[in-house]
């Protein structure tokens, strides 16, 4: 299932609340459009997130639905926050869309299952630079510099006052596949040990001795959000495009693969010791 999620979690929550208010008043979208003098398709597009809801229109809707304080102020604040421009828009020419950045920015928990590549959130700047240079298709220096800036900017969520919980389950191959500079590789392994001591970050390693396991064929991320009504979203990056999965049945398959990852992984403490062993080999 391929979707494009451009709304923030706050925006989706606002639209859900507006649909609830309309349903409680037993009004159809056509009823609302007629009373507000809107085109009959306008509310359909707003409620589906296909058209931006400006604050004047939100004010009209809340007035029609008879919403009073403090609920009115709460919904109006959601409206102000829903379509805020994110830092990533300055780099939108590099990527297919802003969906990934929106979800990563809004998530309460980010779980990354990595059988092949080290997740960008965990990379040192030096490692990120080396990996971007190695994997870039054209070698365009300016474009690689901008990709590096994006990767480092993303890590800003880890320095927030209330950062998201991050779980990263890494295959041993991810840790052993070094960039060309051994010093950079050593620094990256050291950084992973530091991160695993951080309260909101858990890093687990799947050693080669665990054998083949479910989910090994592809890297994926599961985003979970603060509001229980905002269902988890699974994300998988591919050579021919990104896939965002929202359907509960499909997300359940990713959740099962995630559980299999964790079953064969070392716990956080043992994983730290494992990485220390790799450091000794590298040093």
Automatic annotation (TrEMBL):
Check the record and name the PROSITE patterns matching this protein.
HTH_CROC1
Q: Which domain of life is it from?
A: Bacteria
Tell me which residues make up the HTH cro/C1-type domain.
18-72
Q: What is this protein called?
A: Transcriptional regulator with XRE-family HTH domain
What is the species listed in this Swiss-Prot or TrEMBL entry? Nocardiopsis terrae
